[in-house]
Structure prediction request, 478 residues.
Amino acid sequence: MKNYIFPENFLWGGAIAANQTEGAYLEDGKGLTLVDLLPTGQKRWEIMMGKLDSLEPKEGEFYPSHEAIDFYHRYKEDVALFAEMGFKSLRVSISWSRIFPNGDDETPNEAGLKFYDQLFDELLKFGIEPVVTIAHFDVPVNLIKTYGSWRNRKLVKFFENYATTILERYKDKVKYWMTFNEINMLLHLPFVGAGLVFKEGDNELQIKYQAAHYQLVASALAVKACHKIIPEAKIGCMLAAGSTYPYTCHPDDVFDGMEKDRESFFFIDVQSRGAYPGYAKRFLKENNISINMEKADEELLKSHTVDYIGFSYYASRSTSTDPEVLKNQTSGNIFGSVENPYLEKSEWGWTIDPKGFRITANQLYDRYQKPLFVVENGLGAVDEMSENREIHDDYRIEYLRKHVAEMGEAMEDGVEILGYTSWGPIDIVSASTGEMKKRYGYIYVDKDNEGKGSLNRTKKKSFYWYKKVIESNGEQID
Prediction:
């Protein structure tokens, strides 16, 4: 395999989220957050779509976020393992409800603030740059109960207060920020993306796009605050990315693919270019969606655009306008995709498309002409431990090797990329399924889908592979 030259300051690392790792879900004054209401099993999907009948955890249900992998108590051990791999960066999120347990509190929770001080100090001790997501599928449950979450403009002020608080607190420790994780997920998993709960008769499309507008305004306010409080910092947005291929070269399929991509680009067009694009205005008009927009919103969006585009890439998508082709949907893709006959699939039905990574990176850079940051990429798979307690995850190494190579190709194409933080460098709770057996990590965590296990950490074969990649700054990926 060809060798690639990455910039000297390239931010190799990994990415995790508070709600999938920390556990300690009501410890040290933390309030309930939306993910604390997601059980394992059949109901999880309905709840993620906004269909839920309780805003309290229920007796008899298993909620994997409540303990997760206990990163809250074990972060020093885990950071030491990341440092052993040579991480230059670690993407984490701050739990909103650890800082403001109810979301609308007048003063922040000092115990929560202190935890992240300690975490960032530990990272910096090893020369690991924290990359911080302000909201990663995270709304304090009280804000859902009291205000209806992001359907209510009051959330903008609460978010601004939260963002300003953490920007001030960590201004000397964190130089890379992101506003909302996978902001376009709001359209596909509205409870996860925005804490939205729907009742019978609700105009769900109207509610989702109104919530999207409020998140976009809130994002602009966070960018404004960051540029004022930490002028030397970079603050970005984040897209769940993956190009949509037309199933055939029929113009209707090509146009449908463009429209599917635009559904997601809409969010980044606003955050990066500073205005609602024409195609979005047409969509809103044709669907009778009326956005409640204050006079100052347009100027705010225009004046406070992001510094870089963060994105996750797991798979490309494919679309068709042929009803017969549409019957062959892949099982694992949240965005909906017809099966691509040219691609293999993971155990969870996600297409494996390294070349699509290069295509997506080029597409984003051509569109926005701003630095990109690959903040999620990885393979969820079942890992088996051998009798001598080794995990030979060659399939993961193969997936990552091919994707890192295509990232190198994209950079040779002229795409500016700040760093690569692969998803789940340690096994964590799956956001989509709540499972532990869907593992992404270089580090195995002894825990099963029912929550049983010692939580002991074990290095996989991929641990040593990624260590070599970082040591060689991407030159040795074989």
